[in-house]
Amino acid sequence: MKQFIEVRGARQNNLQSIDVDIPRDKLTVITGVSGSGKSSLAFDVVYGEGQRRFLESLSTFAKSRMNQLKKPDVDFVFGLSPVIAIEQKKGIVNPRSTVGTMTDMYDFMRLLFASSGEACCPFCEHPIPIRTAAQMVDHMQRLPEGTELEVLAPIYKIYGENYETTLDEIRAKGFRTVNIDGVRHSLGDPLELDEEADYRMEIVVDKVVIQPNVFKVLTKTIENSLKLVGEGYIRFEIAGQPKGKGKGKAFDIEDFYRGFACPEHHLTMGELQPNFFSFNDPDSACRTCGGIGTFMRSEARFLIKNGDRSINKGAIDPKLLNTSNPGTWLWTLVRSMAKHYGFSLDTPLQELPETVRRMLFYGTAGEKFPFLPEGEASKTQSRHAGKLMSFGGFVHIINWWYKLYLKRNAKSNTEDEFYKRAMVEHVCPDCEGKKLKPQRFFVKIGGADIHELCDMPLKELSRFLEGVTYLPEKAHVGRQIAHEIQSRLNLLLDIGLDYLSLGRRSDTISGGEAQRIRLSTQISSGLMGMLYVLDEPSIGLHARDSIRIIDTLKKLRDIGNTIIVVEHDIDTICSADHIIEIGPGPGRHGGRVIAEGTADKLRANPDSITGSFLSGSRRIEVPAVRRRSSGLTLSIRGARANNLRNIDVTIPLGVMVCITGVSGSGKSTLINEVMCKQLFSLFHDARIVPGEHEALEGHEHLTGIVTIDQSPIGRSTRSNPATYVGFFDKIRELFADAAAAAGKELSKNDFSFNQKNGGRCEHCQGEGIVTTQLQFMPDVESVCPACQGARFNADVLDVRIHNMHIAQVLDMSIEEAVVFFADQPYILHKLNVLNQLGLGYLRLGQSSTTLSGGEAQRIKLATELSKIKRGSHNLYVLDEPTTGLHLRDIQKLIDCLHQLVDAGHSVVVIEHHLDMIKVADHVIDMGPEGGKNGGQVVASGTPEDVAQTEGSLTGTFLREMLVPQEAGAR
Fold this sequence. Notes:
This protein is of the alpha/beta class. The chain has a 7-stranded mixed sheet with strand order 8-14-13-9-12-10-11. Helix 16 (458-466) runs antiparallel to helix 17 (475-494), helix 17 (475-494) packs across helix 18 and helix 30 (853-865) packs parallel to helix 31 (887-902).
């Protein structure tokens, strides 16, 4: 068996025909400065070739039904195994996806509840047995022949609808009789029900007389009732007993129900299926939110067009009350209400009493008033004249319209725009975020329903499942399923994700957390002989927890797998069996192997940049003095979102602040969910709903808020650094001026590859390449034969500046462009900022789809640095900006953040990297642990203050990074 994975002649992206031997069954780390070619080697060459060969082994039929991969630019790769990539990208935007569905544990939870759950009566929560239809029919055999038996099923009002809507649904299913609070009614008769009252309603499914030949019919009746109504519950009522059987021989009705149904309400439950607990199944999902857990709801402030005007003059959104059409039903209802309650529709809205404004927006709470049409009323309005009516309120009317709009399932841009304007996303008011119908939560295990278990932190859930006892007849099944859940839970606990819950939405977890979850599923498979390629698994991990991920990787290695990790973390690098450093620089300056071997060999290698940091000859220095705040602060009061414990946090302005703490301690909740959303709501969009808190004080000191994350700068292949940073327009102007000087009739737009029928090459539509799709082979990309990859037509390419046409300019690196545009101050300024951030290797026209998250973030940072305005005071927020950055690049990032602060702005960074933390002016450490054991401020002050704070885990590790010195003032 081969001892190495042999890569020969790798030229993918910026790799310079390198040869590499990667030891098998070892932990290999590929490191190097950002943009040097690490990911090209690990993912594009090794993983890409492994995947391509696997797909090549499939049949032509299978290949024709899946996307084929292009062969990487490499001579050959020997010694490959089946390969799995575990990347840091989130990639999951589906709001239905949760930690439980990602790990398949929710499927096991559904199975556990379906097979071993204990049901309760929905009215009194008395335990009731779960029976199949056959078992129920067997129980019926205990009744004497001739007994009259009614089969009934409870029904429930649909949230947000009136009773008539609920009854219409029942009629559509073919049922004709309903019991309301014990009184029988025909569904064919009109029913007057108080919408504000709660009724106990049940459908009469069937009435049978017990006879020897009735059991097949009864079985079918039970199955239909469980399927169509009742939400799994069914009730049997003995309507009459046979006569003439002798005195004293009457059947004991209580004995019939004893042990079979709820003693008081006589309800029992039908057999449970796993999809009974699936929020992706329409029959089980909450009727209002469809199983998502959130729902758009209207708010009064968004329905006011102009509070200074009266209702008659257009104070309310015209979608509700259009002043040009005052004869609508809603206008008449509002006028009738004004007459009854004695307020004027000509009074400015904001001058109306609070009680009146509340009635207008939230209704009369069931209180009725006469409906009084005016003038030439329609026939419908005239027919209801004088009738007592209640008013639901504008807010509830919009909510009702929205539900009808969703039911129609007919998209309308006009209506979409209105609902986006008038509504915001809230927790579903029906299921309260639980995603399932309420009846699903009457099935419990150990006294807890499925939502309560999925809402527990994983560590707490593990303890709960260990202590659960099951009914004797279900114990053997329940223990086996619980064991499968427990084994998967233990893997997540081992890699430091104990603070997560199975119900946590996938789109709210970080890329690092998603990667570790995927890693746990691979360990659970127990496969050996595999090749795993990982992208920075240490992302988002506190220094305390990094040892856990290293141990996990070693476990995978020790069972006989090859692990390749692209990583910058010093601890992970030092724990590797073999290290490959790519460099020496980024882009065209990199792509070569500059060092190989163990950590000790890299330390001794003078060419190794990573080795110089490992040996300590290079390091990010602690500032000799730290800035002091200007005295202005931003204060968050009573923050209670997620796991925050009603905390008060003061963030000094005019300095660089680091928010630290172990994973799940509440850092992102405090900054992103509470502070950022509240500031965005104040500065940009009032519809943004921040996390729960009392108040945010000090926002008046800020001009604005800017978040700089690692999301792509554009999803189009035509988006590039020049267009995003904003100097491509100036370049096009220069070429347009040159064209005019040469006597060519070309405008600025002709030098854009987005302009249809302009100067771009129409054969490739400005892409520069033509893609040919093949049925069961990879798509073939070839250089456009018309423009030869230049992306523009001949007329445009004839125009030159300094003897270079626009395609050549776009192909320049930023470093080259600095020299080329030395006489253009505007362009040069923006290019210099990009260069300072270590992005000089990027091409001006490089597609945004080829940029990493770290590169995208630095481009966004460069954009902000290039447009700094004196006199403004912005708050810049960055979440884990060191992701994907080598220590050398982290120093450049720190320098740029200091530029922002020195220009009069404030910077808040959520970070785990100790080198970033130690250079901050102020640190706020959250904790002490994650999840329910976090959410508090453990320490606050300079890094030196935090390092000396007892109980601060960050301080413990920070202490080793700081050189003892007195912090001064700058």
